[in-house]
Amino acid sequence: MHLYYSDDFFKTQKNALDAGNSIVMTNHYMFVAKAISSEAVKIHVSRAEAGFLDFRLARMPKNYHITDHFTVMDTSEKSVFLYVSDDKVKDPVGNLFVSDGLGYRFTHSLENIIKGGSAVDFETVESLDGTYIANRYDVNHGSGSSQAAGHLREVTEDDIREEEALVAERSRMSSGGNANKNQRLGNNEARRRTNRGTLEELEAFDQKIKTYISHNKGASWELIRPPEADMRGKSTNCFLEDGCSLHLQMYSNNDQMYAPPYSQESAVGIVMAVGSVGDKLDFDRGARKGTFLSRDGGLTWSEIAKIPLIYEFGDHGGLLVAAPNVQSTTQVRYSWNEGKTWTKLKVSDAPIFIDNIIIEPKSTAQQFVIYGSYDNSSEE
Q1: Is the pTM of this model over 0.70?
Q2: Contact, 251 vs 119, CB < 8 A?
Q3: Nearest to 217 by CA among 299, 136, 137, 99
Q4: Cα–Cα 20 to 30 A to 166, which of 201, 244, 267, 349?
Q5: pLDDT, tens digit, for every residue of 46-59?
């Protein structure tokens, strides 16, 4: 499939890019995957300032500009956070890259970010510029280091030519040189991984997942410092220097549908998330999860509930509303002082499972909508 454009309602048309078979468009950028074989694509980028017509090959460190799929994670600060799958590994991991202001040249930010289903374990903290949260497989689990691994070197033209020649040779050997023009990103990922034969398998994958945070737009990442005490004032006995930190639930292994980390631009500094303290993110069945809140964009956290909650903000963060989301309830709880104290409010005579709490998009109002379903297992 080829990508065409027209400025006269397609009375005439011009070719913008050959073999562009998947398109992702944001306010500032357009990304197109160009098939080069049945198992790999190259990433091309164009910018709004150029009318989305000037496509250039994304420049990345060696071996990463060619992949089997990618995901645009964030473009809100005029730079692109791009997740690129690691197709040499059996487990669902990839690398995070950050672009320059033009969106063409990328540097490596974080390796081994995990992906659950179609969603990457990555969140933008909208309440504080330059702050991001991600779950990653920690190769150095148990080493005591609180910072993520370093960056890869920058790409050169020789790197690009060398890797393209290598991929082309592999393609000729495996498929006679015929590229699959109808490849789709994401949907056939499992089949492609199976067909590539033996892949590296990460050791104890589910036992080495940790949550990292960046406060400088991906330039460096570190473990999240845990609260010194729980909501009842009891010491957590968890210290970053001992390899113990706060880990937040996102999308991977989330059968219980826990709410991911949440923030709003209008509620400056406020972040809420479901998680636990320990040396790793605990996916085990029956693992205890609590709800945590930060008032300073993720620098410090406090526990506000011993159970997972679902949450929403109003009045520029002056009003917080939350409710249990893994058990039925007749109440919600709200706070007027950024979660320091909470008041419970009865909203139903019969127990209900609350699916969501919503508010108008800017989170500045004081009216909320709660919806869910009745708990049919309870007595009427």
Answers
A1: yes
A2: yes
A3: 99
A4: 201
A5: 888 888 888 888 88
